[in-house]
Amino acid sequence: MSETAAVRDLAVHLARTAGGIQRDRYETEFRVRTKTASIDLVTEVDHACEALIVEALNAERPDDAILAEEGGGEDLDSAEWRWVIDPLDGTMNYAHGYPRFCVSIGVQHAGRPEVGVVYDPLLDELFCATRGEGASLNGREIRVSREREIGRALLATGFAYDVHRSPDDNVDHFAHFVKRARGLRRDGSAALDLCYVAAGRLDGYWELKLHAWDVAAGNLIVEEAGGRTSDFRGGPANGDGLQTVASNGHLHDAMIEVLQR
């Protein structure tokens, strides 16, 4: 087995195991607190999932770097492999009992995205991609949609945690797209939105002010499913998520045009 395959198998195992914690604790009593804003939440389940993943990586791959949303692990500049982890993407949904959340694990090799795994524990859907090998859902190959007209497209977006106080709030983009697209969705999990683009359930997605852990797995899954990712000007997605556009490729230029208005 190649090292990349071993990394992928470990990422799948960790995503499923952390997802099991989320499924077991869903709609039970757990601690919730705020971070940077009243709508920026973290729960004890986030911490439990991250601790499980980080502890396993420290044991199995102690030389690898780890960038995790809640601060676990050590992001080593010298490491060949780097794990970028959102232990519970969709925390607000989870805290409210809204069934839209997941585990997201992206793995980079020498600075390049190599493996992406996203697991939805309630639907038992595992999205997975390895660079150059395509993308899958529960082992079945997935591809982006073929839609070429934005007027027939189903798109998704989200709003940053500073939406209450920042003028750069995505509301203007939302208004422009709602006049152009067939439908818009705002479901609160960037990683799952990206996977839904990859699976052809959505035709496109955009969002502002995400973080690397939100997009590290999902962007690769989109690209390996035949889609395109970029910033708001159509340039390469730089991995930090600050400007994220993902599409089936056919609609990408039209989405960029709307975002530039």
Annotate the secondary structure layout.
Blueprint: H1 3-25, E1 32-34, E2 41-43, H2 44-60, E3 65-68, E4 81-89, H3 91-96, E5 102-109, E6 112-120, E7 125-130, E8 135-137, E9 140-141, E10 154-156, H4 171-178, E11 183-185, H5 190-198, E12 204-208, H6 212-224, E13 228-230, E14 243-247, H7 252-259
Parallel strand pairs: 3-4, 10-11, 10-12
Antiparallel strand pairs: 1-2, 4-5, 5-6, 6-7, 7-8, 8-9, 12-14, 13-14
Protein described:
It contains seven helices and 14 strands. It has helices at 3-25, 44-60, 91-96, 171-178, 190-198, 212-224, 252-259, and strands at 32-34, 41-43, 65-68, 81-89, 102-109, 112-120, 125-130, 135-137, 140-141, 154-156, 183-185, 204-208, 228-230, 243-247. It starts with a helix and ends with a helix. The strands form three sheets. A seven-stranded mixed beta sheet has the order 3-4-5-6-7-8-9, with helices on both faces. The chain has a five-stranded mixed beta sheet with strand order 11-10-12-14-13, sandwiched between helices. Helix 1 packs antiparallel against helix 2 and helix 5 (190-198) packs parallel to helix 6. It has 261 residues and is of the alpha+beta class. The chain is globular.
Number of domains: 2
Count of DSSP-assigned helices: 7
Shape: globular
Helix content: 25-40%
CATH topology of the largest domain: Fructose-1,6-Bisphosphatase, Chain A, domain 1
Q: What value does the Rg take, in angstroms?
A: 17 Å
Largest sheet: 7 strands, mixed
CATH class category name of the largest domain: Alpha Beta
User: SSE order in H/E notation?
Assistant: HEEHEEHEEEEEEHEHEHEEH
| Unreliable segments of 5+ consecutive residues | none
* CATH architectural name of the largest domain: 2-Layer Sandwich
C-alpha termini separation: 49 Å
Specify the structural class.
alpha+beta
Please, what is the CATH homologous superfamily of the largest domain? Fructose-1,6-Bisphosphatase, subunit A, domain 1
Total DSSP E strands:
14
Mean pLDDT: 95
